[in-house]
Amino acid sequence: MTLIQILESRGEALTVQEVAELLGVSDKHIYEMVADGTLPAFYIGRSVRLDPQDIADWLRRKKFPVVQGRDEKLPQKRRVLNRSGHGSGNSAVHNALRRKIQHLEAAAVIDDLTTKQGLDKTAEKS
Asked: For the chain, which end, N or C, has fewer CB atoms within 10 Å of the first or last residue's CB respectively?
């Protein structure tokens, strides 16, 4: 039985640990793939779950075609480039940092608005 057949025979959502074991990678690697959108997943509360059919479909897309001749090339792994045109080392880390920056920027805007409203109320009282 192939890995895709094993996944398709599963009726319930899979945990990160189950997917990591099936794919032969660490839990951390699966979490990183989910965080950067490489693996399709969903959340139940704070728990990450993966649909076995989605994982099977993802594996089908990732599977290399059978090479008939030596002249045919295998597909190249796509390299993600950052704004400066350089490859990113870990897109999950970059995405997490980008989200943190967005939250900090939003907090700064809220802080500025709160401060401005406080100054406006002080001016009205004078």
From this structure: C
